[in-house]
Amino acid sequence: MATQTVRHRDYFLPVTTSGEVIHGEDHADPPPARAAAASLGLLALALIAVVGLAKTVSPAIESGVIAAGLPSSVVGVVIALLVLLPESIAAVRAAHRDRVQTSLNLGLGSAMASIGLTIPAVALATVWLPVPLVLGLGASHMVLLALTVTAGTLTVLPGRATPLQGGVHLTLLAAYLVLAVSP
After folding, report:
1. pTM higher than 0.90, yes or no?
2. Could you point out which of 37, 59, 101, 135 has its C-alpha 20 to 30 Å from the C-alpha of 21?
3. Are 118 and 47 in contact (CB under 8 A)?
């Protein structure tokens, strides 16, 4: 959070088509330390709520997936899509306004939050819950993971994203979804 709001704030601001950072009325000043700490606490609280909601909704999703005859891995995909829905909507809106970098920052940020926060939180919750935790990838998903890491590295390291790079990420997402439904 400190990286996005203080140290490297310019990395997360929108840019013009010529590559200049837009400093203007669209963005607030960096938050004071107290507000950042309160935001961190609220983020942890929201994470607990999201994990609880996913746990509550998962039986209905599981029964729907079984009724549709889909593999059980689709349950995780649907729950992940529900968790990432707000950021995904914001990313699509930013892309529609031709702010590809902002769109990519939203998408990568939400994915990193899901991976970096949700999975450890669920793993910690399984200590208290009588449900086994299985995190595993098949060979095809390992290849997709490697391709995604490579595409992400090539997109993020130059500092600016292009619509073509966004299309590559969407294609990888589509391939993952297809393989999740019909492995």
Report:
1. no
2. 37
3. yes
